[in-house]
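Q: A reviewer asked whether we had any structural model of the full assembly, not just the individual parts. We don't, so I'm hoping you can provide one. Inputs are below.
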Amino acid sequence: MASKAATMTTAGSVPRASAADARPGLARRFSNLLTGRRAWYLALMLVPPLLWLGVVYLGSLFALLAQSFYSIDEFTGDIVREPTLKTYVELFTTPANVDIVRRTATMAIAVSIACAIIGFPVAYYMARYATGHMKAFFYLGVMLPMWTSYLVKVYAWRQLLAKEGIIAWAMDRLGLAWLLDAALATPGIGGPSLTTSYLGMFIVFVYMWLPFMILPIQAALERVPVSLTQASMDLGATPAQTFRKVTLPLALPGVIAGSVFTFSLTLGDYIIPGVVGAPGFFIGMMVYQQQGTAGNIPLAAAFSVVPIVLIAIYLWIAKRMGAFDAL
Amino acid sequence: MTTAIEFRNVSRVFGQTRAVDDVSLTIEDGEFFAMLGPSGSGKTTCLRLIAGFEHADAGTLLIHGKDSGDLPPYERDVNTVFQDYALFPHMNVLDNVAYGPMVKGVARARRHAMAEEMLELVKLHGFGARKPSELSGGQRQRVALARALVNHPRILLLDEPLGALDLKLREEMQAELKALQRRLGITFVFVTHDQGEALSMADRVAVFNHGRIEQLDTPRRLYQQPRTLFVANFVGTANVLSGEAAQRIAGRAQPFALRPERVRLAAPGQSIVPDWLAVAGRVAGVQYHGASSRVEVDVGDDVSISVQVPELAANETPEPGTRVQVAWPRDAMVWLEAA
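A: Here is a predicted structure for the entire assembly that you could use as a starting point for your response.
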């Protein structure tokens, strides 16, 4: 017992002696200063990103919003820096502009729904069944397209969708040319070829934003314990009922998060509608054109406000419908 | 009595492991049956086989006499209380409990009345509007119980339902579960790794080890007459002596178990009751447990025997290092099947 106590004292005194000998390094003294001073620590961590978000991001956003309340002098082309709703009146009374908003919003909704329908099973498989190599393969498969340049992908799709492209060829070989023709003959979405139809544009959009839908849904499903679906079946629910009453409601925040991505990305994109699809303008193109070639900054700003408002409305409805109750 | 559940040579294999290995057992209707074992012993897999979350690779599973091995969970007259309770976080307590009737198409007013009745049964009246996240662990456990009972199943499965509760609450719930089972008269199948829980609640206990049942008996017989080394060690505390030590001490080369409360301490040279066995040794350590003390006696050759000394006699507990005798009646030795 006595010898044990003796060794313990020596063992305890060793680090103490060395700590007294060598003065703590600068990094250690800095750590000591911050430890226990929670406010300093937080400030150090948060001030840089908050400066970035607050000044660069929010600042420019409010500058943009402010611009939309200016107007343009039709004769001189100068910006009149006086608050007015003139630009908004122009935006919502010119039929061409209203068409653009409606067209873009419709496309964004269609793309979001399609992404959710295609993405959900993939996300479900990734979250529930894939393990080890299979999971890695799926992650890679979902992310890999994002490693490639956006422009390369868009132009590649232009080739794939072309009248002489591989899709038309494959449909022809499979004896499904009639299906493609029927789709292209459908008013509203059709056109001379997939490259020059809204259907083609829709396909490209869905392809482009699919990862942004899959990943949030997968993350949401990952957090749903398997025991919940088992409990549901245990209580007598069929798989379909279980999906409707348990899985879907719990994955809904993920679907909403994903659809906010797909929706806003579609609303803001100005490259895809220019490369693939029918000649009608989209909001993104309009912003680009108004602030670039036309020099109508107020109208460009007003157009940029539209997606913000649409997403705000969407989130409000989603919240009212209880989409975030499971959070 | 009719049979609630019957396993006939059931096996369930995961890759290389035989999680359930050729198990046969019968659970009677209205019985409180415990499946006891360490983690990975196959007890939970057996429960999941009954619930329908797992399917047997071999053998037959009968529920109320009907071959049920291939039935999906939603077609079995069996409900489960999950280890993590598995309450639906997006529904309030009332809707959680009313879930079973809801998916069966019971009208809203009727199923809410059923749920209220169940909440009353588990003493959670008035908690219906709360979300599961607003409840304590014990309350969640009760909600899970109410939800599983609302369908009036003939068999209730409980997967370590008390594992997440603190000691005091656990003891309370043990008594309540037992009372509830008596009142409802349905079969309870209870999985636990806590031998105390199994002994205090169950009518019969199956002790699992490596996917097999080591022993199936009433709690008392399990405690008093463990058949194998594993059961003797797992159920309660026992001195388990190897065949070698048994040969030296008792003159028979077969391992035996000896409960510490059957052993007495005596001073060296003190005369022993005739027909008792006595071994001389030296006190290695004393642990104080309140109601009793545990004295470890080293009897040589790396064999130590622990003796339970009740608190009434605790002033007699010797200091470590003291020479003593340990003695026990011959019938206290339970001869075990050689491992």
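A: Points you may want to mention in the reply: Chain A touches chain B through 20 residues (CB under 8 Å). Residues 231 and 237 of chain A are 9 Å apart (CA to CA).
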